[in-house]
Design brief:
single chain, alpha/beta, Carbamate kinase, Alpha-Beta Plaits, VC0802-like, 8-stranded mixed β-sheet, 4-stranded antiparallel β-sheet, 18 strands, about 40% helix
């Protein structure tokens, strides 16, 4: 039977007790699995800063690798009493850190880094984690081997920063490479282009790595171990007593991730939906029973009693607004704008138009670039181009939202009762999402109001 793929994230790698829990979980599987691991908590951010500083400070290279080596040495000392075994692992990590130092030093000499070099440098956090965790598991008596994406043939489409796996080229290679009867530890976050360059899957992309590998080997499941209780009706930091969601469809999970839920990377379901490989979510701080997932994402469609399964929000979006008399009706305006944004690699999340306004929802990080691009285009009927950043997108997700009357009315009534103004809204773009824009200061109260309406009150429609 194919191995299950087990993903441990950076939130599982914070302290000594976390590593001990991972060892116990791996033992509880009682059979070989493929483990995909993220960088240690905070390491990717540290490398991003190092990349930036290395452009103008030649000391960053050495300081970065010294810090990372000490970090791993201290953690190893907590788990491995045998100095000889600990030094063997440190030797492997040092080889990787020496490579990293050379790359950072090269950036210091040139004052710049190509997208290919940036991707290569940022992947070292995961590479080091894989070597570290494999050594820890070997010391615990578990037959384990590191399998780097470059050695197993995880081939991508070559897009730097936002790559996708080329399953035609990867599947047979990965399946063969991970076929031995032992546990493999694979660094997540990256694959290799056809010409051998490191390409990242985007921030948080280790979930996608794990999903891609699960598809390649035909895994019975992708098991993701988090530090929270799976999918809930809302973030427990936002509402009291959120409801556990035991079952979701791939689309529900993807929409929740897209609109801000932190359980999965939004792209995780992409490789798994077609082969119907379920995603099982566990809490590393709860029971370590590998047969009792808290949430399961699969093709099974379940419409909940109240229709809405979860409410979430995201602060990652902003609006590029084009204003002018007749702008919404003028042929070619939107085409010119979207073409310019496409050529610049800026993704458009949504477009809402009226007679006098075109509102384009895009990532906040792209707003300034988008503004400059659109302002430079000759658009005769556009009187003003404006950026709106102080907003949040709030989304209610659940199968049946589009087909059941009264759901939208309940959402907007709940918001009105709490004095929350809706700046824009959209239903129908997806049959299982109703989302709307509110002022950033209103997002928490908006989530609470909707959650109260659907999960804390009795309503004849739900």
């Amino acid at each position: 039977m194919p191995k299950a793929v087990v993903k441990f994230g950076g939130s599982n790698l914070k302290c000594k007790e976390d590593i001990a829990r991972i060892i116990q979980v791996v033992k509880n599987y009682g059979k070989p699995v493929v483990i995909v691991v993220s960088a240690f908590y905070g390491v990717t951010n540290y490398l991003v800063e190092a990349l930036d500083k290395a452009r103008y400070d030649e000391h960053v290279a050495k300081n970065t690798t010294t810090y990372l080596l000490n970090l791993k040495r201290e953690t190893l000392a907590l788990h491995i009493a045998n100095e000889e075994k600990s030094n063997l692992i440190l030797t492997e990590i040092t080889i990787l850190l020496d490579e990293l130092e050379r790359y950072l030093h090269g950036i210091a000499l040139t004052g710049d880094a190509s997208p290919a070099l940036e991707d290569h440098v940022l992947a070292y956090g995961e590479r080091i984690s894989a070597v570290f965790l494999a050594g820890i598991l070997q010391n615990a008596g578990i037959d384990t081997k590191v399998a780097f994406p470059e050695s197993i043939g995880l081939i991508t489409d070559g897009e730097f920063g936002t790559a996708s796996v080329d399953f035609v080229r990867s599947t047979s290679k990965v399946r063969e490479a991970l076929s031995e009867d032992l546990i493999y530890v694979v660094p997540g976050f990256y694959g290799l282009s056809a010409d051998g360059k490191t390409t990242l899957f985007g921030r948080g992309g280790s979930d996608y790595s794990a999903a891609a590998i699960a598809r390649c080997i035909g895994a019975p499941s992708l098991d993701i171990w988090k530090d929270v209780n799976g999918f809930l009706s809302a973030d427990p930091k936002t509402v009291e007593n959120p409801v556990q969601i035991e079952r979701l469809t791939y689309n529900e999970a993807a929409e929740l991730a897209y609109f801000g839920a932190k359980i999965l990377h939004p792209r995780t379901v992409e490789p798994l939906a077609a082969p119907h490989i379920p995603i099982r979510i566990f809490n590393i701080y709860g029971e370590s029973d590998v047969n009792k997932p808290l949430s399961v994402v699969s093709a099974e469609k379940i419409v909940s009693k109240g229709i809405v399964k979860s409410v979430t929000y995201s602060d990652d979006f902003g609006i590029l607004k084009l204003k002018g008399s007749g702008v919404g009706a003028k042929p070619g305006i939107l085409a010119k704008v979207t073409s310019a944004l496409h050529l610049a690699g800026i993704n458009i999340s949504s477009v809402l138009t009226s007679q006098i306004s075109i509102n384009i929802l895009i990532a906040k990080k792209d707003l300034s670039t988008a503004y400059a691009l659109v302002s430079a285009i000759e658009l005769s009927v556009v009187g003003r181009v404006q950026i709106i950043e102080d907003i949040s997108v709030v989304a209610a997700v659940g199968n049946g939202i589009a087909e059941n009357y009264g759901v939208a009315a309940r959402i907007f009534t709940a918001l009105a009762k709490n004095g929350i103004n809706v700046l824009m809204s959209c239903s129908g773009a997806s049959p299982l999402v109703s989302y709307f824009l509110v002022g950033a200061n209103d997002r928490i109260e908006a989530v609470r109001a909707i959650h109260h309406e659907f999960f804390e009150t009795i309503n004849p429609l739900g």
